[in-house]
Specification:
Helix content is 51%, strand content 11%. The chain has helices spanning 6-25, 31-52, 87-101, 104-119; strands spanning 2-3, 61-63, 69-70, 75-76, 79-81, 125-127. Helix 1 packs parallel to helix 3 (87-101) and helix 3 (87-101) runs antiparallel to helix 4 (104-119). The protein is elongated.
Length: 142
């Protein structure tokens, strides 16, 4: 069973953490809160970037154990969505995190997403696999 809220959770985590960081800037006594929000944001993005993404691309829904993802036009572990609620939404969340924190880690995460979008730009759903795992049925025709 897939969970269509996985990417929405990432976006929500980024929005909440960046809002707390911005609000804490105006309250010098809230440094501890700002630091906790930054740590939570980093943890969420690291998880999505290292455990969920396929070469910077994202499905809009995943199995709870992340063994399987579903996109609008295909399903499987390596074919990801480059339209709508998958990859672009994650990339925008990373850019927002970078804008608020200035941490280059989030900019690099957004660049990973951009590379996935460029790689799949000719096809709304693209297979993002390494050559050793690419099969004829998962490659994009040109």
């Amino acid at each position: 069973m897939t969970s269509p809220t996985r990417i929405a959770l990432l976006v929500s985590a980024v929005v909440v953490a960046t809002t707390v960081i911005i609000a804490a800037r105006s309250q010098p006594d809230d440094r501890a809160l700002r630091d906790r929000a930054r740590a939570a944001l980093r943890k969420a993005v690291e998880f999505y970037r290292t455990k969920v993404a396929t070469e910077g691309g994202y499905h809009f829904a995943y199995a709870e154990d992340l063994s399987y993802g579903r996109s609008e036009m295909s399903e499987g572990p390596t074919r990801v969505e480059i339209q709508r609620d998958g990859t672009p939404l994650a990339g925008m969340a990373y850019l927002e995190a970078y804008e608020v924190t200035g941490d280059a880690y989030y900019l690099e995460a957004a660049r990973d997403v951009a590379r996935a979008l460029v790689k799949g730009g000719q096809d709304p759903v693209t297979s993002l696999t390494t050559p050793s795992t690419t099969t004829p049925s998962s490659t994009r025709s040109t």
